[in-house]
């Protein structure tokens, strides 16, 4: 028969057996939590550092990208000069010029290359005749909104 004293001794014996495994588990848990906290802080520092590095490089990359478009505009100016000025360039000549620019490779993201010609209301009929004679018989001027001033034809 079991008495109370033997039950108390048996429970002390069971607790002393569990003391070391419990200490190991709790120590491992504490180390794992500490490692998690340190790793999270380190990863946050890496993310902030990488973001800052990208942000530092961005202005130079934007300027470099815009420089390509600037070269395209300078090339267009050269085409105008070679054609004898604004009046000497035609739609077909400008189209031939723009074909040499190789948009897909040189001007990533650009959908086209064009120039704007200022046309007074008085010379509109003459301009339309010339534009239609320049390989565009269906050419017409469309307005975004009615106004009485000069037209800026793209």
Helix content: 55-70%
Mean pLDDT comes to 85
Structural class computed from helices and strand pairing: mainly alpha
**N-end to C-end Cα span:** 108 Å
* Overall spatial form: rod-shaped
Total strand count, please?
2
Rg, nearest Å? 39 Å
Strand content: under 5%
Which terms would index this structure?
single chain; mainly alpha; 154 residues
Overview in brief:
The chain is mainly alpha-helical and 154 residues long. The chain has a domain of 95 residues. It is built from four helices and two strands.
What does this structure look like?
This protein is mainly alpha-helical and about 150 residues long. The protein has a domain at about 20-115. About 65% of the residues lie in helices and about 5% in strands. It is rod-shaped. The model has no long low-confidence stretch (mean pLDDT about 85).
